[in-house]
Recover the amino acids of this structure.
């Protein structure tokens, strides 16, 4: 028993060190509501508090509080580190790659840059995506590729069903896009899904390759991303 406890402490210390190294990256890809669902050892009051922070200030603020909690409790509850890591892995979230003690899952700088640019492009064309995509259709295709899990799809479908009119699709797409962009290596399969769902034009926008026929005024806003575009195109699209 003592050996296991010691090794668990050692493993927890390694995780805490990785949190300190990659804190900003981890915080940006922890969907707090979903992660808390996968952490049964946390008390209900604590979960309510963290969910409230997420609702009022956003996931990054709530993720910071969750990381601080894991750090604070780790000396007495090394299993909490393990539970947190397992929650990230089970959810398929990008943050899990930064907490592998063997560093086997650590994203390369080019992959990070591609993901950053993909998120920026999704944000830039967000209105167009919410107007164009059919949430449930795209979500089920994402499920087929392992990009979303059944719980993700169920939540997207529920959002869609809550409003029967056309406007109900927008919050469902918003929920879906948020969940997709938190996943590990989400960009390439998402572009495939868009193409298969008949949205090749949107895939072109998000990949950074709009054709001459479907360029729009918004593309002019991308000057600030040009330095990253070359890296993005070479590492992912080609």
């Amino acid at each position: 028993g003592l050996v296991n406890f010691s090794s668990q402490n050692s493993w927890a210390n390694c995780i805490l060190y990785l949190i300190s190294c990659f804190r900003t990256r981890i915080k940006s890809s922890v969907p707090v509501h979903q992660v808390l669902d996968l952490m049964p050892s946390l008390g209900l009051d604590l979960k309510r508090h963290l969910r409230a922070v997420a609702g009022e200030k956003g996931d990054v603020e709530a993720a910071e509080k969750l990381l601080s909690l894991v750090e604070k409790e780790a000396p007495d509850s090394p299993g909490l580190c393990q539970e947190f890591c397992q929650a990230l892995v089970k959810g398929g979230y990008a943050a899990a790659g930064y907490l592998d003690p063997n560093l086997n899952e650590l994203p390369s700088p080019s992959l990070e840059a591609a993901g950053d640019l993909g998120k920026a492009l999704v944000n830039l064309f967000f209105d167009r995506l919410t107007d164009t995509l059919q949430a449930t259709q795209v979500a089920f295709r994402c499920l087929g590729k392992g990009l979303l899990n059944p719980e993700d799809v169920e939540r997207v479908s529920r959002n869609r069903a809550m409003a029967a009119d056309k406007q109900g699709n927008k919050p469902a797409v918003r929920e879906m896009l948020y969940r997709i962009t938190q996943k590990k290596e989400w960009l390439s399969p998402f572009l495939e899904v868009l193409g298969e769902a008949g949205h090749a034009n949107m895939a072109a926008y998000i990949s950074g390759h709009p054709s001459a026929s479907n360029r729009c005024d918004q593309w002019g806003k991308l000057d600030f991303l040009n330095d990253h575009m070359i890296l993005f195109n070479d590492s992912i699209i080609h």
Q: What stands out?
A: The longest helix spans residues 2-21. The radius of gyration is 19 Å. The chain has a mean pLDDT of 84.
